[in-house]
Amino acid sequence: MSQLKKHYVVDDQGNKVAVFLEISEYRRLLEAWEELESLRAYDAAKASGDEALPLEQALKEIEAGRT
User: Fold this and answer.
1) Is the whole-model pTM more than 0.70?
2) Residue 28 burial class via C-beta count within 10 angstroms: exposed 0-12, middle 13-18, buried 19 and up
3) For residue 20, how many C-alpha atoms fall within 13 Å in the half-sphere facing its CB?
4) Is 1 among the domain residues?
5) Are 19 and 6 in contact (CB under 8 A)?
6) Total domains present in the chain
7) What is the pLDDT along the chain (67 residues), one digit of tens a residue?
8) Domain that holds residue 29
């Protein structure tokens, strides 16, 4: 893993309150986070013991839940 290049934003007392990252690092971290979320969702679904749905049916149910 590469060394993160970051710059901190500090408050009046010198406490770190935010961080600036290069956009490439931000995107890499975002992709890693999304992958982790997918893995967690997969693990939770597997552990639930629920019956698996065909992909098309699952997508229809997800879309129906968005409206």
Assistant:
1) no
2) middle
3) 4
4) no
5) yes
6) 1
7) 457 778 999 999 999 999 999 999 999 999 999 999 999 988 888 888 888 788 898 889 888 888 6
8) 6-66
